[in-house]
Structure of Phosphoribosylglycinamide formyltransferase:
Amino acid sequence: RKRVAVLISGGGSNMLALADACAAPDFPAEIVGVISDKKAAGGLAKAAARGIPTFALERKDYASKAEHEAAVLEALASCKPDIVCLAGYMRLLSAEFIRPYAGRILNIHPSLLPLFPGLHTHQRAIDAGMRVAGCTVHFVTEGMDEGPILAQAAVPVLTDDTAETLAARVLTVEHQTYPLALWLVASGERAFPHDGEKSKAAPVCNDPQA
Ligand code: GAR
């Protein structure tokens, strides 16, 4: 089984969805550590309750972004992960951070990338008059919310949606899409496409035809 470390900043519901998937005996991955940049992140207690080692490393306890990243890298290294999953980790990773895990870091973003990268995705989707929204799991590269797409899922945008109601609807499909994407990578079905190699088609997680 592939060793997976999960980075969080908040409630950790995606981390829990991954942990639930990993609890199945035939799932090709296990969660070996959860690292948060917020001591108060709700996900830390949820991970600890499942016996997963946790680490809390606040940015403000370090003099610079580089020193904070070095501490997170050290915690990561102690977990010896094969795969790193960003699950609501609200920090942009530097090239130095990515290098040791290049091609092995996944991120979930609550929009249909490449639309609406960055913050306030749901309000921006509503303001743009979108009738569908969704989530994307992708390999992490240096650009924010860039990198080859692994899986997506779509949901409708309803006429009376607020950013909060839309976020909640998207979150429910995030919990299906991230485990699917992790399965694809951990099982060897998908890998980071190198040297102009064409990436295999990304599945739509909630495709009724699939
Ligand atoms: C999720 O909606 C995730 O897609 C989003 O934060 C939420 C975390 O929820 N991530 C980003 O916006 C990253 N740019 P969770 O802590 O309950 O998994």
In short: The pocket of glycinamide ribonucleotide is lined by residues 8, 10-14, 43, 87-88, 108-110, 171, 174 (CB under 6 Å). Residues 9 and 90 are 6 Å apart (CA to CA).
